[in-house]
Design a protein that fits this description.
The complex is a heterodimer of chains A (138) and B (163). Chain A is mainly alpha-helical and 138 residues long. Helix content of chain A is 71%, strand content 0%. Chain A contains six helices and no strands. The longest helix of chain A is centred in the middle third of the chain and has 22 residues. In chain B, helix 2 packs across helix 3 and helix 5 packs across helix 6. The radius of gyration of chain B is 18 Å and the shape is globular. Chain B has six helices and no strands. The longest helix of chain B is centred in the C-terminal third of the chain and has 25 residues. The chains are: A mainly alpha (138), B mainly alpha (163).
Chain lengths: 138, 163
């Protein structure tokens, strides 16, 4: 129960940042792909930089989790064709819907009709992936 | 709400979510696996959804927090329809109400591609662009570049036809 509430609060905080910085907005995503503003790029780069800095500190200082375990981060496995083709398809979807995975959920709360359509779409996409999982090049 | 929180505040705050999740929950930031978790709950008979879903359970709780943040924003500020960034709108018919249900089919298509692509690439903007690139993982750097190439094609060439 504690973990559930904690994770819920973290999700709420993450969503609030994405709302305040307008990352959820279809228009911000179009603006980024049209190179009309530095906003999204600055946001992504500073997020990556901050994360990298803290990952370095965690590793160097051997910081433990609150459960007392050593924190280990695993990089995602390299699957060249899957990363590229899957990435291209994801990017297409991101630009058309103006929303990646987190904003899909934010929009469910903000614009429930379009949000639920997006969520249904993302879910359908996951089902289609599951159906073809063995036939896709990696 | 027409002025966004500046990137130099919002970006580091987003980046901070990575160590916070690791320290408090021992989880690597990611969101799109929650779609598979939903599948495991709704359609457990499909082979792909028959997996040890407990590893992804936290993501659905995180996602619920995201939904609540959107709902809270709606209660406080309305639907944000006024958040329009004018210079982008070369094609004026998009106008203010992009989130109108008349665009439902386009959004559904976009959603399908997001869901399919995220699973195929093994991650989304959170898991690859932020979590993965900050580890300097080759897979995530390649995926992130691909996200942007796909997005450029969609935004510059496909959207003017769709909307």
């Amino acid at each position: 129960m504690f973990k559930f509430i904690l994770t819920l609060i973290l999700g709420f905080a993450f969503g609030s940042i994405l709302l305040a910085s307008q990352v959820f907005s279809w228009f911000r995503i179009q603006e980024m792909f049209h190179f009309q503003s530095f906003h999204m790029f600055g946001l992504l780069f500073s997020a990556i930089g901050t994360s990298a800095l803290f990952l370095f500190i965690i590793k160097k200082m051997k910081i433990k989790s609150i459960q007392g375990n050593q924190i280990e981060v695993k990089p995602k496995k390299l699957e060249l064709k899957a990363n590229i083709i899957g990435g291209l398809i994801f990017g297409l979807g991101w630009s058309i819907s103006g929303a990646c995975s987190a904003p899909v959920y934010i929009l469910v709360g903000l614009h429930w009709q379009i949000g639920l359509i997006l969520l249904a779409g993302a879910f359908t996409g996951t089902v289609i992936y599951g159906a073809f999982i063995n036939k896709l090049p990696r | 709400m027409n002025t966004p929180l500046a990137w130099y505040f919002a970006g580091p705050l987003i980046g901070l979510m990575v160590p916070i999740l690791l320290i408090l929950r021992e989880k690597q930031l990611g969101i799109s696996s929650s779609y598979r978790f939903i599948g495991a709950t709704l359609l457990p008979k499909i082979k792909y959804f028959n997996y040890s879903k407990n590893q992804d359970r936290w993501q659905i709780h995180f996602a619920l927090g995201l939904v609540l943040s959107g709902f809270a924003a709606f209660q406080l500020f309305g639907a944000f329809d006024q958040v329009v960034i004018q210079p982008v709108l070369d094609y004026e018919k998009v106008a203010v109400s992009i989130y109108d249900v008349k665009n439902g089919l386009q959004f559904f298509l976009g959603g399908i591609l997001v869901g399919f692509g995220a699973r195929y690439a093994n991650g989304c903007t959170a898991g690859h662009c932020i979590m993965g690139v900050s580890q300097f993982a080759t897979s995530s750097i390649i995926a992130t570049i691909s996200f942007f190439v796909g997005g450029l094609i969609g935004s510059l060439f496909i959207n003017p036809i769709l909307f």
